[in-house]
From TrEMBL, chain A:
One Gene Ontology biological process: DNA repair
Taxonomy of the source species: Eukaryota, Metazoa, Ecdysozoa, Arthropoda, Crustacea
Spans annotated as Disordered: 1-30
Keyword Oxidoreductase tagged: no
Residues of the Checkpoint protein RAD24-like helical bundle domain: 330-425
Main subcellular location: nucleus
Organism listed in the record: Daphnia pulex (Water flea)
This protein's name: Checkpoint protein RAD24-like helical bundle domain-containing protein
UniProtKB/TrEMBL annotation, chain B:
Protein name: Replication factor C subunit 3
Naturally occurring in which organism (per UniProt): Daphnia pulex
Residues of the AAA+ ATPase domain: 34-188
Assembly and oligomerization: Subunit of the RFC complex, an heteropentameric complex consisting of a large subunit RFC1 and four small subunits RFC2, RFC3, RFC4 and RFC5; the RFC complex interacts with PCNA. Forms an heterotetrameric complex with RFC2, RFC4 and RFC5; this complex has ATPase activity but is not stimulated by PCNA. The heterotetramer of subunits RFC2, RFC3, RFC4 and RFC5 interacts with RAD17. Interacts with CNTD1; this interaction facilitates crossover formation.
Keyword set includes Nucleus: yes
Automatic annotation (TrEMBL), chain C:
Entry protein name: Replication factor C subunit 2
Higher taxonomy: Eukaryota, Metazoa, Ecdysozoa, Arthropoda, Crustacea
InterPro entries listed in its UniProt record: AAA+_ATPase, ATPase_AAA_core, DNA_pol3_clamp-load_cplx_C, DNA_Rep/Repair_Clamp_Loader, P-loop_NTPase, Rep_factorC_C, RFC_lid
GO biological process: DNA repair; DNA replication checkpoint signaling; DNA strand elongation involved in DNA replication; DNA-templated DNA replication
Keywords: ATP-binding, DNA replication, DNA-binding, Nucleotide-binding, Nucleus
């Protein structure tokens, strides 16, 4: 029943996100870069750029070497069950590294895929007749683990596993070495983690085929990894772990340049730079962005582009171009944040401003260069997110603590305003305006009065720490809840326990606030990417 | 072996260490058989839970001590599933409705309905009602509190509620009037010293009187804290010396250092540093109001009279903001920044006066 | 309303024999569950104390005069609900359950619900003869308790209903603040203000209950009970029952009253003021820490402090002004969930400053 899911992965098939795309599957018939190029019109740049050998990989050499070493020793030793876990942020080339290395070492990859439809044949047909047939989630649940187990069983049982390939064209070399690859961890897996662990353990005892897990981590502190592979388990499995890091911008740049050279249309270098700047180490998204620009903006002419390059220093002028290569508008967003923090005031005003009474003279400000209402209107993000970004970064733009205290007072008011349940839209708008205008007003060190902070003008905008703090709180909360029952019965007493019980004591009070915060912010995108923004 | 706090928890009303008269009255109430809804309130570490569990034992005998943990599921009208953990015996069930967040009303209504409607199987049992213990009632939404008063009347015959709270300020009046309110004041220092001595005697360790007094002073009249500190001190160094450092939770030490930082430097940079530290505390689930309170306590040491009043009112103002807003860091940071500005001005003024 | 009807039924049973019968153990247990507030509600309008004006009108309607729509207002615990319920019982006797619809704030009371419920109820026709053959007025009574918590829209919706059903239904609106009832509604009702009950009447009533419940209570204790319940008879009776629950044998003391009512003993209030005048912040802080450790409610303290400040002789109007403003602010913050200790500290600082 589960045969459907057995697919032998093609090397040209890029990345996690697209594994199910049918378009991808037909286009991925071409294994080689050259043939892919011919078909370029139907493929994304991503495919054309697949590296063919390990030297072309833009991943850190050390990581490649580590993986290679593991692969080699996995087949040299006759130990049972070898496991490798690859982790890293999205688009840093985990899978590519593995696939390229496997190809070089002549190893076949058997990838497990999440069964989308796993019905008996009859059911399958029935489904075709009746597209609205409702599937019982429970049945799916059961099938899910069965499917996984069966897959592992089979891989184990037959020394040469005959793949059911739809085309049946690929001849299998029975001597070919193979590894198992699991790179999808569907949410269902968390429903019965114990079973998943048992499956792994069972597998480790019975098989000799090495297995590789690829886990995309998005956060610094990753709970998924701990859940799927708790320390105890990975110790028992003797699992090796290789952590990939996000690609450095220079690597991405190199890769993009190479792809750009190979492809028919050359992409202007400054566009590439822009993409590199906005992709945040995610090569895949960078490639996608480039592909999008080259296809949709075929007429990116060189002369205007060059003229723009000269003006790159000016923030405002960059706007027009960057809309082309920003991935999700976040660069735009960062620009707006930058503008608010970097507020400029006019040096002088035409005509005379109304005189302020004496006691208010301290509050005198020259008019702003920017129209604040216009600026805030153009920010598409939720106001609470804008406020968080502003809050994270504003102190660097202030010189006097008095100004800071005023500014953060406004932020506090803005947050209180934005937390209303009724008339949310109206309050959100006012909250944003209060925050933004408050910041602009409080900062008296603008227009060259700025003494650069610590002598450096480089003030990258940073992602709010708020998100990671929130996540840690939730994790700790969960941990505390789990440990709640054990607390009073646990045997060993040590100082740590003292701390734990103390913290439970107080965290019990926090539970409420964590909950409510979590609720309020769940709608905000938690996966905000760190953007380094050069001003 | 368990923590001393749990090990030496009195399990009957007769064995209570302090508030003896109150204990007697509770016992009388149980023996008399008319047992109204109770609202037990008092500061943390005063022994509310101890009294509740002793009361339960008094009501049902040792059977209530067979506890089991259960996860109960509730479905909200919007079809969201909530899971709440409960601790229950055959006779009672304990739940913290705040685990359900804003859905606490549903949890309360559903759970009490389920319990009240299920007939007690054990007909020979002494009581015809079960007990539902709700903790942290003062954190309940107003909605849930209003729902509770209807529920209380409706199921009076089959179940009794024991509500636990830190203070009655946040409990609506109709709810208070439906319950017999029992105030559990924090133990006095003498009470704490007595208990500390008693525990050390049972553990077979000697506790110098001076050290006991110091422990009691540092405990802020919180018995749980006192016992935990005693135990931690024992682990750290035994036999006790009078001069021995009292082990405090590390987050309190950390907060104290943070307060000192605020006093020592007032600049945007220092603010950023303090922010980092506050984030660190928040991510360890230290309650934000606790942070403000402890910071206030620390920085007040460096202020003179007029400044103290000003800083206190700042703290009260921004602590209130915590309840209004959703991002606690904004408000704590606002407090920190305001203090820095005020304090800087104060320093400059006093410097100018000296000239 | 459920509980009300239930107790109404129970008390009806016991009414026949005059003295509550206690046939068995079970009955007794059930009996102890009845709140005394219900148990000692006046059964007839003659029993209603002190509100002569409204009693006179209701008595006239008992003798056959038409009953207007009524609006009762006044502070809590002055007998508004009791009066109309007693009147209904007098008017309808045993069929009173069918003739009265009581809706209060804890019931669903949106516009739609009020319309539906009232409509269905008021459309049933009623005869002017009771099943037992006696005469009774040919209308029904709808009691809207706590009407001031109804939304303006719901009140407006009521306006039309009141006029339409005037033939067969009388409305009785009960509220604390008449200003929260919209003008068109008040103009359709005859308004009766319930005066706060004077001390003697409260004492008499409580003594009556004490005797009926076989409790011994000194005059002094009753006095302080009344003070703690701020003239609200219902609260006083509830407190009395709580005291009886907690210790029935011994004679309750004033400390018991404080304990039950959650009232802060006046030594704490005086102590706080004294610490404030002393001008030492640290002394005040440790005093407040001790206060919170005792577990008293700060909002209760604020109420009592307010009383103390307003009627104090040693403070100037300007000082009172400053302090009361801060009191209001702190009370508001507390209501929104702020920390008790900090707010009390803040308030005390203000008081301290005003003394300097």
């Amino acid at each position: 029943m589960s045969q459907k899911g057995w697919v032998k992965p093609d090397f040209a098939k890029g990345s996690e996100g697209y594994t199910h795309s049918t378009k991808k599957q037909c286009s991925s018939k071409s294994h080689m870069y050259d043939s892919a190029r011919v078909k370029q019109s139907t493929e994304s740049t991503e495919c054309t750029s697949t590296p063919v050998n390990s030297s072309e990989l833009v991943v850190q050499k050390k990581k490649v070497a580590e993986v290679k070493h593991w692969l080699e020793q996995a087949f040299s030793k006759s130990q049972q069950g070898q496991f490798l876990l690859l982790t890293g942020p999205p688009g840093c080339g985990k899978y590519q590294t593995l696939s390229v290395l496997c190809k070089e070492l002549n190893i076949e990859i058997l990838a497990w895929e999440e069964p989308i439809k796993h019905f008996e044949a009859s059911e399958w047909e029935y489904e075709q007749y009746n597209p609205h047939h409702y599937r019982e989630p429970k049945q799916k649940d059961v099938n899910f683990y069965d499917h996984l187990e069966e897959f592992l069983e089979r891989a184990n049982r037959f020394s040469t596993l005959k793949m059911k390939d739809a085309k049946g064209s690929v001849a299998h070399n029975s001597n070919m070495r193979k590894i198992l690859l699991i790179k999808e961890f569907p949410p269902m897996i968390f429903k019965n983690l114990e079973r998943w662990h048992n499956i792994l353990l069972k597998y480790s005892h019975r098989t000799r085929t090495p297995a590789v897990f690829i886990l995309t981590s998005t956060k610094a502190f990753n709970s998924t990894q701990l859940k799927l592979f708790p320390t105890v388990l990975s110790e028992r499995l003797m699992m090796s772990t290789v952590n990939f890091t996000g690609l450095a911008n220079t690597f991405v740049l190199k890769a993009l340049q190479r792809v750009s050279l190979k492809s028919k249309q050359a992409t202007p270098p400054e566009v590439i730079e822009g993409i590199v700047g906005s992709c945040n180490g995610d090569l895949r998204s960078a490639l996608n962005a480039m592909h999008w620009i080259t296809t949709s903006n075929v007429n990116v002419k060189k002369p205007p582009a060059y003229s723009k390059k000269r003006k790159l220093a000016s923030v405002e002028k960059k706007d027009s171009l960057n809309t082309m290569y920003v991935r999700d508008g976040s660069l735009d967003f960062m620009h707006a944040i930058g503008k608010i923090l970097h507020s400029k005031r006019l040096d002088q005003v035409q005509g005379s401003l109304p005189e302020l009474p004496k006691h208010l003279l301290e509050e005198f400000r020259l008019p702003l260069k920017e129209d604040v209402n216009e600026l805030t209107k153009n920010i598409d993000e939720a106001s609470s997110k804008v406020l968080l970004y502003l809050h994270q970064n504003y102190p660097l733009y202030f010189n006097r603590i008095e100004d800071v205290s005023k500014a953060v007072g406004y932020l506090s008011s803005a947050d209180s305003l934005g937390n209303q349940l009724v008339y949310k839209e109206i309050f959100d708008e006012w909250s944003l305006l209060t925050g933004v205008r408050g910041l602009l007003f409080s900062n008296t060190s603008v227009n060259g009065n700025e003494v650069a902070f610590k002598g450096s003008a480089w003030r990258p905008l940073r992602k709010p720490d708020y998100y990671s703090v929130l996540q840690q709180q939730q994790e700790l909360h969960m941990h505390v809840q789990d440990g709640y029952g054990l607390k009073s019965t646990s045997g060993q007493l040590n100082y740590h326990q003292f701390q734990v019980s103390q913290s439970t004591d107080f965290s019990a009070n926090v539970v409420d606030s964590v909950n409510s915060n979590g609720k309020k912010d769940r709608d905000e995108d938690a996966d905000i990417i760190i953007e380094d923004y050069d001003d | 072996m368990s923590l001393w706090v749990d090990k030496y928890r009195p399990n009957t009303l007769a064995k209570l260490d302090f508030h003896l008269e109150q204990g007697e009255r509770l016992q009388k109430m149980v023996t008399k058989g008319n047992f109204p809804h109770l609202l037990i309130y008092g500061p943390p570490g005063a022994g509310k839970k101890t009294r509740v569990s002793a009361l339960l034992r008094e009501l049902y005998g040792p059977g209530v001590e067979k506890l089991r943990m259960e996860h109960q599921n509730f479905t909200t009208p919007s079809n969201k599933k909530i899971e709440v953990m409960t601790v229950a015996s055959n006779y009672h069930i304990e739940v913290n409705p705040n685990d359900a967040g804003i859905y606490d009303r549903i949890v309360i209504q559903e759970m009490i309905k389920n319990i009240a409607q299920a007939q007690q199987l054990d007909i020979g049992g002494q009581r015809e009602f079960k007990v539902v213990i709700l903790t942290e009632v003062d954190k309940l939404t107003k909605d849930a509190q209003h729902a509770l008063r209807r529920t209380m009347e409706k199921y009076m015959t089959t179940c009794r509620l024991i509500l636990c709270a830190n203070s009655t300020s946040k409990i609506i009046a109709p709810l208070q009037s439906r319950c017999l309110a029992i105030r559990v004041p924090a133990p006095s220092q003498d009470d704490i010293i007595k208990v500390l001595q008693m525990v050390s005697k049972k553990e077979g360790i000697t506790l110098p009187a001076d050290f006991a007094i110091r422990l009691a002073e540092r405990s802020e009249r919180n018995l749980r804290r006192a016992l935990l500190m005693l135990e931690a001190c024992k682990v750290q160094q035994y036999p006790f010396s009078v001069k021995q450092e009292i082990v405090e939770p590390d987050w309190e030490v950390y907060l104290r250092e943070t307060g000192q930082k605020m006093v020592s430097e007032q600049s945007p940079k220092a603010l950023l540093e303090v922010r980092g530290r506050i984030y660190e505390l928040l991510s360890h689930c230290i309650a934000p109001e606790m942070i403000i309170k402890k910071l206030l306590k620390e920085i007040l040491k460096n202020c003179d009279g007029q400044l103290k009043a000003e800083v206190t009112s700042m703290a009260a103002y921004y602590e209130h903001r915590l309840c209004l807003g959703s991002k606690v860091i904004f408000h704590i940071e606002a407090f920190v920044a305001k203090f820095m500005a005020i304090y800087k001005r104060f320093l400059e003024d006093s410097f100018a006066n000296m000239m | 309303m459920d509980s009300f009807l239930k107790t109404g039924k129970l008390s009806n049973q016991s009414k026949g024999s005059g003295v509550p019968l206690l046939p068995g153990n079970v009955e007794e247990k059930k009996h102890s569950l009845i709140p005394w507030v219900e148990k000692y509600r006046p059964r007839t309008i003659d029993e209603v104390s002190y509100q002569e004006e409204v009693v006179a009108v209701l008595q006239k309607s008992l003798q056959g005069a038409d009953l207007p729509n009524l609006l009762f207002y006044g502070p809590p615990g002055t007998g508004k609900t009791s009066t109309i319920l007693a009147a209904a019982r007098d008017l309808f006797g045993d069929i009173y359950k069918d003739r009265v619809l009581e809706l209060n704030a804890s019931d669903e009371r949106g516009i739609q619900v009020v319309r539906e419920k009232v409509k269905i109820f008021s459309q049933r026709t009623v005869s002017s003869v009771r099943p037992d053959g006696k005469q009774c007025p040919p209308f029904k009574i709808v009691i809207l308790d706590e009407a001031d918590s109804m939304t303006g829209a719901a009140q407006a919706a009521l306006r039309r209903t009141m006029e339409k059903e005037t033939k067969s239904t009388r409305f009785c609106l009960i509220c604390n603040y008449v200003s929260r009832i919209i003008e068109p509604l008040t103009s359709r009702c005859s308004k009766f203000r319930f005066k706060p009950l004077p001390r003697e009447i409260l004492v008499k009533r409580l003594e009556h209950i004490c005797i009926a419940e076989n409790m011994s209570c000194s005059e002094e204790v009753l006095e302080s009970l009344i003070e703690a319940s701020e003239g609200d008879l219902r609260r006083a009776i509830t407190f009395l029952q709580s005291i009886a629950n907690l210790n029935s044998e011994a004679c309750p003391t004033i400390e018991d009253i404080y304990e039950i009512t959650g009232r802060v003993p006046s030594c704490w209030i005086e102590g706080l003021l004294e610490k404030c005048t002393s001008g030492s912040y640290d002394a005040m802080q440790s005093f407040i820490n001790n206060f919170s450790a005792e577990g008293f409610s700060v909002s209760q303290l604020l109420n009592q402090l307010h009383e103390r400040i307003v009627f104090s002789t040693e403070l100037s109007s300007k000082q009172k002004n400053v302090i009361c403003e801060k009191l209001a602010i702190c009370d508001h913050r507390l209501a929104e969930g702020a920390d008790e200790q900090l707010q009390l500290l803040d308030l005390s600082c203000t008081i301290m400053n005003s003394f300097q």
